[in-house]
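Design a sequence for this backbone.
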């Protein structure tokens, strides 16, 4: 792997973890620090969205995971007092790095 690719991947992970941590902190979700742990951060997303932890299973099923991912991000947007359609934009590459920042710091 190219060193530039590794740096970009780490930057993307750091950004998404920071945004999820900030969103969890704003919505007073317990254990917001779990946003920094890979895989466990999906559980944090479900808790911020008000979904049960069982939604993680839906994220493991191909094609169903797309719908579940959109539903989770729509609920996260509503938890941040933003319009739910922002969650739909999370499936657009590039935009999916902007929306968490809007929800976390907007």
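Sequence:
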């Amino acid at each position: 792997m190219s060193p530039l690719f590794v740096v970009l991947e780490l930057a993307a992970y750091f950004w998404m973890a920071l945004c999820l941590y900030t969103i969890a902190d704003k919505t007073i979700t317990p254990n917001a620090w779990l946003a920094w742990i890979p895989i466990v951060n999906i559980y944090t997303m479900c808790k911020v969205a008000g979904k049960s932890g069982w939604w993680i299973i839906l994220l493991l099923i191909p094609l169903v995971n797309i719908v579940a991912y959109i539903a989770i991000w729509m609920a996260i947007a509503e938890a941040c007092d933003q319009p739910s359609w922002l969650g739909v934009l999370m499936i657009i590459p590039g935009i999916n790095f902007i929306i968490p920042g809007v929800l976390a710091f907007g």
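The radius of gyration is 13 Å.
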